[in-house]
Design goal:
Length: 208
């Protein structure tokens, strides 16, 4: 479970808009907002370097953080961030206020184990349908990942959400169907070989 937390310094900002945002970015800061918990949103500025480091370290969207805004502290969960589409630098972050009783919706990464105990070791290919599962979870108990055990799976088998042991208090957002997480498919080489055999057979038939 994700118990790690961290603290970032931020400053409140009164001016908003494109001009103000550009000025912040020139000074190494990112415009951001804290919202939720039935309170008015707060516009803030936060270090570009610090946020970028947290994103690159992984788990940014599933780790509760503390924002120190001019001495006042807020427990938050990052809910969204934007990058410049051309130069790929951070341009904005949204933070959701949370408390010990908060329920949040997050994308939880899916990890696979025991590939060597499935038909993957015989050449089967793991076709991942969902790399993450969107779920409702307590803000103070967000899992690092959902683990899918591939032990014993054969080519042609599928893993559905009902077959996965979910961490405690994790409830998938999708509840109206038993959605697929992954499948084990035949090797691509085998599929190509079969196609070539079919073509060869058809050509032989025509030549007779």
């Amino acid at each position: 479970m994700s118990k790690e937390t961290y603290e970032l310094k931020a400053e409140a900002r009164e001016r908003v808009g494109k001009g103000s945002s550009r000025e912040l970015r020139r000074n190494g800061l990112i415009p951001a907002v804290i919202y939720g918990d039935k309170q008015a949103p707060i516009s803030i500025a936060i270090s570009t370097n610090e946020v970028t480091k947290r994103v690159q370290a992984g788990g940014f969207m599933t780790t509760v953080a503390t924002l120190d805004v001019d001495g006042k502290k807020y427990k938050v969960l990052p809910k969204d961030y934007q990058r410049d589409p051309v130069r790929d630098f951070m341009v904005h972050v949204d933070f959701l206020r949370v408390s010990g009783n908060s329920q949040v919706t997050v994308e939880i990464p899916v990890h696979f184990i025991n590939e060597e105990k499935s038909d993957i070791k015989k050449g089967g290919v793991l076709n991942i349908v969902r790399h993450t599962v969107e779920a409702h979870v307590p803000a103070n108990d967000i899992p690092d990942a959902i683990t899918v055990d591939l032990d014993g799976l054969k080519v042609g088998d599928s893993v559905h959400i009902s077959q996965v042991t979910l961490p405690k208090n994790v409830v998938p957002v999708i509840t109206d169907r038993d959605f697929t997480i992954a499948t084990i498919v035949p090797p691509v080489v085998a599929i190509v070989d079969e196609a070539e055999e079919t073509v060869a057979t058809e050509e032989d038939d025509k030549s007779e």
